[in-house]
Amino acid sequence: MQFQGLGLMKKAPHPNAAVLFFDFMLTDGQEIMSKAHAIATSNKYDQAEKKMPLRYIDPVTAMDLNEQRYKVYQDIFVKRSK
After folding, report:
1. What is the predicted pLDDT for the residue at 2?
2. 67 CB contacts (<8 Å, ≥6 apart)?
3. By the 8 A CB rule, do 8 and 18 touch?
4. Cα–Cα–Cα angle for 42, 53, 50, nearest 5°?
């Protein structure tokens, strides 16, 4: 389970249901996410994933490698399928 974010459409047919879902995800849903190995935002749950060291990637390097990675992807997946 990967929960990225919440949003509500301007003219949602059931906005109150959406608010209830938001409330659930920010309270009881945190335990469910924690048990499913998704990273819960609540500090109530001790998760190994939260203790992993972060590795930051230089965005300039990532963009420089983008063209090279795109070519490899094309060679492996696109050209082979033709």
Report:
1. 55
2. none
3. yes
4. 15
Count CA atoms within 13 Å of residue 80 on its CB side.
Answer: 7
* Amino acid of residue 45: Y
What's the pLDDT band for 3 if we cut at 50, 70, 90? low
Mind listing the pLDDT tens digit for each residue in 37-66? 777 777 787 777 777 788 888 999 889 899
CA distances from 13 to 5, 16, 19, 24 (A): 20, 9, 12, 19
* C-alpha to C-alpha distance for 68 and 75, rounded to whole angstroms: 11
Q: What is the DSSP letter of 75?
A: I
User: Cα dist. 64→21, 40, 57, 69, 74 in Å?
Assistant: 41, 33, 12, 10, 17
Regarding pTM above 0.85, the answer is: no
